[in-house]
Structure formats: structure tokens, C-alpha cells
Amino acid sequence: MAAVASGLYVGVRCRLCLTLTGQWTGLCGKAPSRFYSGSATLPKIEGANVTGIEEVVIPKKKTWDKVAVLQALASTVNRDSTAAPYAFQDDPYLIPTSSVESRSFLLAKKSGENAAKFIINSHPKYFQKDTAEPHIPCLMPEYFEPQIEGISEAALKERIKLKKVRASVDMFDQLLQAGTTVSLETSNSLLDLLCYYGDQEPSADNHFQQSEKSEELEEAIEENNEKSKKAGHQFGVTWRAKNNAERIFALMPEKNSHSYCTMIRGMVKHRALVQALNLYTELLNNRLHADVYTFNALIEATALSMNEKLEDKWNKILELLKEMAAQKVKPNLQTFNTILKCLRRFYSFGRLPALQTFREMKAIGIEPSLATYHYIIQLFYQHENPSKGSSLIIYDIMNELKGKKFSPKDPDDDMFFQSAMRVCSVLRDLELAYQVHGLLNTGDNWKFIGPDHRRNFYYSKFFSLLCLMEQIDVTLKWYKDLIPSVFFPRSQTLIDLLQALDVANRLEVIPEIWKDSKEYGHGFRDALKEEILMLMARDRHPPELQVAFADCAADIRSTYESQDARQTAPDWPANALNYIAVLFLRGGRIQEAWKMLGLFRKHNKIPGNELLDEFMDSAKASNNPAQAIEIVKLASAFSLPVCEGLAQRVMADFAISQEQKEALRDLTSLTSDSDSDSDSDIGEGK
Amino acid sequence: MFPRVSAIIPLRLLSPFPLCPGGSEAPAAAIVRLGAPHGTVRTKNEVHRYFGTNNVICNKKDEQSAPTRDMSKETETQESVKENTKKDLLGIIKGMRVELSTAKVQTTRPPNRRQLKSIEATTGRLHKVPEDAPKKRTKSLGPELVAAAAAVADVLPFDKQMTKSELLRQLQQHEEVSKAQKDGERAKISVSNIISDMKIAKSSTARVSTRPVHQIQFDEGSNDYVGQKKTNDLKKSLRKNILKGKRLNIFDLKAVTEEAPETETAPSLWDVEFAKQLAEVNEQPLQNGFEEMIQWTKEGKLWEFPINNEAGPTSISAHSIKRLPNL
């Protein structure tokens, strides 16, 4: 790598030399390191004939950061749609084939990492040997135990830094008892710690665990507007009255605005809303000023408070904003995002205020983030019923966002694409979906797709929309591109694809879809299998296709059989039996078809009339009257009304002996005679 | 059919068409006109429904008082004067009765105090200018309104000339704003269309029924009333929607952008944790080997490319060089 880079430099130099003079022998042959140091000055050329040469522009020195070369290389690599994502080991056994496997493999990898780190940090004395040159700090054990002993402010600071809630509180109390005053700054940082974690220890494996973002289900996204979990609030931690934070706050001899602010923020985070608002009044009474973060927390507190009408809440929020303006506190992006987030709970009342807030934001020059648009979309498309008129605001938003690149500004930024795609799906607008997808692929925006389940949701909706509205060739191209390298389809997605194939009359692709379905773990989904069988069995097709379908049906049959082996009460759906039998018949697998007929009895399912007709046709074609009689027997065993028709057909089309005719008449009389005693007569059948 | 329609529509119409501060001539006029063709007099109930706060007006009479209110708001702060002006004007309005011959409207007595107060709860400045019936409105900002404005100016204890000019200015403003906003599909959402096109009216009733009854709802009307066809023109015309329109008007651009002297404080725990959360938003699994190497380089586990031979402190020092034992 180094050699190539330096070669480039040398090349440049050589070219320059060439244009200047004819002599370039010695200079370029020199050790490249000298040029490589980045100097942009030209070496002196002795005896050069400099007259009649163009002006040479010395380029400015470029500085590259340490990952520049790697980034350049990474930008040349595109996604391989036939390969598994890079995060997985490239081994057939370790490549996931379903979303469940995918998730568990990634978790396994991460947990291995965490386990290793845990061991190293628990037993640091065994891991002291450091052979890396230069030293790699992040591979060395970390120290989580406080080192400073004794009672002093430095010890307190250390415990605060290590996030030891209990130990810090104890240290603080000890200091107070010993009579030392704790500085305001340290007290404030202690308050910060207590308020952020709600007077609980940070979660035990705080250092090892990934972010605690809760997983939302798709439907829950619409219903669950409680984004308290998202705000970093540890689920279940509520603010207890008279906890350590309040106690220490009361003990502090002097409090500045930071103290009040952090208390208010802590209270709001842990849902002690009334206390937060009261504390704010106290803050004002002490002639102190709140900062913008505190105001954001107060807005949230106002919006979440119960037992108030929406207009009152909104008015209070407006008042808070006016106070902000009066105290010359500059609002930030979070201010407006918090307002919009809270407005979602106001349902349709919140629409107009939301737009006004958005315009205010733009008017004072704060650039909205993806989370802003996400909240607006949620507000306008909450309980979407496309039969009534829908808001058109999504088109506005997409026009606004065209071509923009984003950087993370709000923890909810990764919710945008999923909501946008959901709206596209509801509105059934493919153009809009393409726009959203285009935005996703702009620059680095793809990183905002969010965690696994959100990505799956997005792509499932996108692909379903494609199946519904796009031409089949394009859809199949997307299918090859996205599945399985980007997401694993759910069985419903596959059913949608099958229906698209049906509409486009491309049923020959079905066996391939079945193979893929098995691969993605949907081989045991009854709905999917029935859909496949139904589409294959519905019409007659040219012989080769029929054979292919029969093979596919045989495969499906084997899945049913293996299911049977595992269950105590085997249960094949009646439709499946019907379809498989028909497909075998048409595909030329007569023997197996007859075996299927036998299975009807076994599973206590009734064969369809058309099926029996087809069997009759097949018997006729092979000129086998015995088979024909079998069919009639079967029909009578099930007491099917068609039995008589079948019997007549047999007598008409087949050359049968007199005894057989007699038997047939018996059979038909059995079925047509509702009062007949079936026990006595069945014994007489041949 | 028509009377029934007119009975229904006034109740429903105003919800999709929130009224602007200071003036709602068109809906008021339109609605009143709707109710009036057979000389029906609007009942008290209908009037109360739409009587908003000091900014919102529903019928002609209120409309006269509201501009005054608006103006009074300009002169004094909102909160303190709200109650007072309302009480004053209430008394004044109570005695007023205006009959406008061209519109063939017979307005009733103004709502009494009790009901007014109950409606005070609605927010004031949030109502958008209704975007409908532009033609009729042009006419309506004619003699009737001027006469009305003059009448109000006479009655009120403030400076008559100023009051009148203020009122007229407000009305003109609102008319201009509403004119500017009408385009494309919006013209469709006019009062006459609503009468003629029952479908729209029906869908509006369906919508209203889902809302809580005791709260007055406000929406951006045109957003919700679009039929199935979305033409490009429509999209373009609505493009302005999200950006144009009223804002909260609480913050001032200049005040916000001026550089206040910021005290440098170390980032608190809140800031640090927030920054960590933000970093996680963008996290995605690595896509290829190069990205993995980038990650390692950033963590310090991998040498930088191009290799820098002088990186890191040298560990070779005098005392660590092995010395051969003297033989």
C-alpha cells in the first residue's frame, strides 16, 4: 500500500521533471521517502533550461487522515447480492438462512466478545503482558474499581466517574459527616449521576451490554406512542419520593441553576412530572435561569401530565416557549422534536400545532432531522384508513428531503424510513416508495435504516408493494437483489410474490419459489404451501410444466410426511391432499396419485368432486375398469352424492362384466338410499 | 333536502376550516348564507360552537368584535387583558344587533357570557385562514364589512378612527392571505362545492364523528379533503403547504442566531450519554473487510495506512538493551 502511494508521488514528480527538462535520470530514481514526506517543493534542477516553460503550479499539501486510504478502498466495494452479509462467518454452517438465525448468530458473536472482555476485566492480573508495539490501550484490562481510598473529594470524584451510585452517595455522606464541604461542582456532578440513573445503579452489565433500545413490533409502533423507553429511561425506574437525589439536593448549602436543572431533568426522565414542574417554579423564585435542556424536559412533562385537556396542555407548552424566548434561551433541535413527539398523543388536534412548530423551526434556522419528519408522519398517518381522504403531507416531505444527506442528530432518527415506507404501503404508491428508497440510498443515509427488525419491516413493506404494483420482471429482479442478502422474507411476503406471479401469469417460477421458501425456513407454513399447491393445481399446463409441478408437489408432500412423523395426530389439510393428488395425476405419476387417494381415508378427508372426475378420466385413458370401480367404491365409502353419477359413467364408458355391474348398482343404492343399513351391505361389496 | 343540508353543514363545516385570528368573513358569511336562504335564523347552539377565543369569530357580530380584540391584544399583553377585554366587549356585544341586507342574514343575539367562557378554552392563534369561497369574500369585504367596522368603531371606547382603520386593515390582510392561498384543488373546497358535492360533506361528517365531542378540532383543511386523484399540479400546489402558513411566532430569528457568550463547561453526564445514544443511531454491522479495518484503525488495534514507521513511542532505550555477559 505504501509502495503504491509513494509510487504515485514519484510518478508525479517524474512527469513534472519531464515537462521541465529532458533530464530526469537522477532525481526520480532517488529514494521515494524524501518526496514522500509530503513536501510539495520541486527539487532543484541543475543546469536546467528553464526558459520557455509554462508556469508550474505547486499543489497545496494535502493531509490525509489515518483511515483515508481504507475509506477509498471501501468505497469501491459494492454489496454482493449473492453473498451473506459480511458480519457472518463465511462458512455454510454459519451463514444464517432466516431472520431468527441471523439475529441469534449476531448476538452470539457479540456475546462472545462480551464474555472475553468480562474475563479480562475480572482477572486483570493475568492479562498484564503487553507485546503490542505500539501499545493498544483498548485490549488491556479496564479498571472499574475505585483506586483512591480514604475519604476525600478526589475519592468522591473518582466514584462518580466510575458511575458507582451507592459508593458515591456513601462517600458524600461521609464527607459531610467529617465536616468537609463538597465543592459545588462535585455536588452537581453527583446530582447528575443520581438524576440520570434515578438513584439506581447503572445496569449491572452496563459496560458490556449493547444499547437498551426496546424492540417495537410493527403494530405496536402505531399504538405505542409511549417513547419513554426510547428516551434512555430504564424501563421500570420511577422516581421515588425522598430518594437520595432529593435528599442531597436539600443538603446542599448552595445550589446554582445547574443543580435545579439536573434535578428537573432527572424527575422528568423518571416520570415525576408534577415535582418537576414544582421545582421549576422554585427555580424561578430563586431568580435562576433554566437552560434549554431543562426547558425541553419541562415541555415533555407538560405534555405527559394527565387529566388535562389537550388545548390546556398546548397552551402551557406555548407559554413555556414564550418564557424561553423571554429569558433568551436559545431553542435547539431537541426542543422542537420534543414538542412534535408529544403532539402525537394529541391525535388530530395536534396536526395544526405540529405544522406551526415545524414552520417555526425552519424560520429560526434550525434544520429538522429525520426524527422531526418521522413524528410528523406519525401524527398525520396515525390511524390510517385509506378509504377516507388521506393527508398529502408525505409528498411534501419527500419533496423537501430529496437528495439530502443526514447525520445523526436525534436518537429517533432511525425511525423515519420505516414510517415513510409504511405510509407508502398504505397509500399504495409505488413512485413514492421509490423516492423513499432513493433517499435511503443517498450518501450514508442507509445507516439510518435502524436495527434488524426495523430493516426487515421496511423491506417487507417495500417488497410487498412491489409485488402489488410493479411489473413482474422488475419485481423478480428486486427479489433476486434483496433476498436473502438484505432481508429474509416472511411467509406473507412470499405469498404476495406468488399472487403477483399469478396475476402476471408466470406460474412456471413457482417451483423455484418453493425451493427458496424451504431454504428460508418456511417449509412448514401451511398457508404458504396451500397457496403454492392451489396455484399449481388450478389450471392445466403444458406437459413439461406439469412434470415440474408434480415434482414440486412431491416435495411438498414429503414435508407433510415429516410433519406427520413428529406429530402424534397427523393432520393433512384436505385441500393439500386434493391438490397433490391432482398434480400427480396430471404430471403422469399415476401410482403415487392412487396412493394419495388412499391417504384420504387415512386422514379422514373428503376428496373433491373434480378430483374424482379426473381420476375417472385417467382410468378411462388407461382403460382400467378396476380402477374405475375403485373410485366408485371410494365415493360410496364417503357417501358422496356424486357416487351415482360416477357409477353411471363407469357403466357407460367401461366394458365391465355383469357381476361388476351388479356390485355397482349395490354401491349406488347404498348411497342413494338414506335409510339403508350400511353395516349389512358393505360386507357384500367386491 | 336543502334545509337539512344547511342544518348539518354549518355544524360540520367549520371544523375543517379553522378560523383565522381576527377574521373569518367567508365561512361566517358563507355559513350564514347557507343557513339563511329560507330565512332561517341560526340558533344559539350553532353560534356557540364556533365562538372561539378572543381571536376566533363565527358570525358577523363576533367578527366585528374579534378584530377589536385582536387589536387590543396588540396593544396589551395577552394574558392580562384577555379576561378584561372579554368582559368589556361582552357587554357591548350583547347589546349589538346587525342586520346586513345584501347577505340576507339575520343574526341572533350574541352568545351569553356563560357559553362564551366555556369556549374560551380553545386556543386562539392557531386557526388557519379558511381557504374557500374566495369570490364571495371579495364582495363581502365591501360595504357590509366597512359598515360593520364603522359600527364597532363607534361603539367601542377606543379611538374611533384608529379602530376603524385597524379593523379594516386586519380584514384586508386576511382577505389577501386567503386569496394567496387559494389555488388548484383548494378552490374546489369551497362552500358552493361542498353543497353541490355531497360526497365531500359526507366524508367530513364521518371524520367528525370520530373526534371527542367536547373539544373543538382544528386541521389544515385541504390536507384531508383530497379525492383519490393526485395530479402533479395538486402535488405542486400543496408543496407550499408544509412550509407556508402560520408559525408560532414565538422565537425571533435575530435573537436566536446572535452569538451569546457561552461559558465553557465540561460536558455533563447528560451530554455524554446523549452523545453515546446519538452515535448508536447510525450503527450498522460492517459491510466489508475494509470497513472492519477502518473500525480497527480507529480503535487503535491496527496500524495506520500508509505505515508510519515512527508511530508510537519507541520502547528501545538504553537500559532495555540486552548486554552480553562479559566472558
TrEMBL record, chain A:
Keywords (A to Z) from UniProt: Acetylation, Mitochondrion, Repeat, Ribonucleoprotein, Ribosomal protein, RNA-binding, rRNA-binding, Transit peptide, Translation regulation
One GO BP annotation of this record: regulation of translation
Q: Where are the PPR repeats?
A: 332-368
Q: Where is the composition biased (Acidic residues)?
A: 674-686
Subcellular location(s): the record lists: Mitochondrion
Q: Which GO terms describe its cellular component?
A: mitochondrial inner membrane; ribonucleoprotein complex; ribosome
Q: Which InterPro entries match?
A: PPR_rpt, PTCD3, Rib_mS39_PPR, TPR-like_helical_dom_sf
Q: Where in this protein does the record put region Disordered?
A: 665-686
On the tree of life, the source organism's domain of life is Eukaryota
Q: Name one GO molecular function term.
A: rRNA binding
Family statement drawn from the similarity comment of this UniProt entry: Belongs to the mitochondrion-specific ribosomal protein mS39 family.
- Tell me, in a sentence or two, what this protein's role is: Mitochondrial RNA-binding protein that has a role in mitochondrial translation.
Name of this chain's protein = Small ribosomal subunit protein mS39
Species, as recorded: Panthera pardus
Q: Which gene encodes it?
A: PTCD3
UniProtKB/TrEMBL annotation, chain B:
Q: Which GO terms describe its molecular function?
A: structural constituent of ribosome
The record's listing under InterPro entries reads: MRP-S31
Listed A to Z, the keywords are: Mitochondrion, Ribonucleoprotein, Ribosomal protein, Transit peptide
Organism of origin is Panthera pardus (Leopard)
Q: Which GO terms describe its cellular component?
A: mitochondrial small ribosomal subunit
Q: What is its main location?
A: mitochondrion
What protein does this entry describe? Small ribosomal subunit protein mS31
Q: Where in the cell is it found?
A: Mitochondrion
